[in-house]
Write the C-alpha cells for this entry.
Amino acid sequence: MTPDVRIRAVQAAEIVRLRAALLGFVRRHGERRITERAIRWLQHVDGAKLRSPGTVMLLALALRRDRAPVPDARPLIGLFAAGDYGLSASFLVVHRRARGSGIGRTLLKTALRLLGRLYGRIALDNAASLAVAQAAGLIPVRRTFTPKGAPAVVVAGGDWTEEEVRQCARSVF
Ligand SMILES: CC(C)(COP(=O)(O)OP(=O)(O)OC[C@H]1O[C@@H](n2cnc3c(N)ncnc32)[C@H](O)[C@@H]1OP(=O)(O)O)[C@@H](O)C(=O)NCCC(=O)NCCS
C-alpha cells in the first residue's frame, strides 16, 4: 500500500459526527454489495458498541489531498467495520478509484491484528472480495448463503472457532 495512506480507528466519541459521511461512502462505493442489515448496523452503532470487544471500525485516509482519488474531495478512501468479530456485521469498501493498491488488504490485516480473530460472509460471485480476504489471511471455512439466498462462503482468520463459524453461517446480516 502506498505510504500516502493512513489507517486509523474510529473513536467512540467520533461516530455520531462521522456517521453520515461513512454511510454516503458505503452507498457511493459499495457496488450494492453491502447488505441492508450491515447498513442498518452502521446507522445504529454507538460509542459503547465501538468500545466493546470484537468491534472495530477502520478508516483509510489519503494523506495528500493532491493524491486523493478525487482531488480536493474528502480524504476517505476505505472503510472496514466489524461487530462481534464479524458475527453481527462485517463489511469492507474501498473508493472505486483507489482499488487494486492494497488498501482493502491492509484494512483487513489491521482489523485481524487488532481483534485476534475475524469472520466474514462473501458471495461466491464477488471475486474481488474473495481475493482480498485471502490476501489478508482469511480462509474459506464453510459454504453458506447471502440474506438474498445467493451462494456464499464464510471466511475466517486468526483464532477462529467452529462454533463461531456456525454462528456466522446462520447470521442474517
Ligand atoms: C473488495 C474491495 C474492498 C477490494 O479492495 P482493494 O483495495 O481493491 O483490494 P486490494 O488492492 O487490497 O487487493 C487485495 C488482493 O485482492 C486482489 N483483487 C482485488 N480486486 C480484485 C478483482 N476484482 N479480481 C481479482 N482479484 C482482485 C488483488 O490483486 C490483491 O491480490 P494480491 O494480494 O495477490 O496482490 C473493493 O473491490 C470494493 O470496495 N468492492 C465493493 C464493495 C465490496 O464488494 N465489498 C466486499 C463485500 S463486504
The chain has six helices and seven strands. The two ends are 30 Å apart (CA to CA).
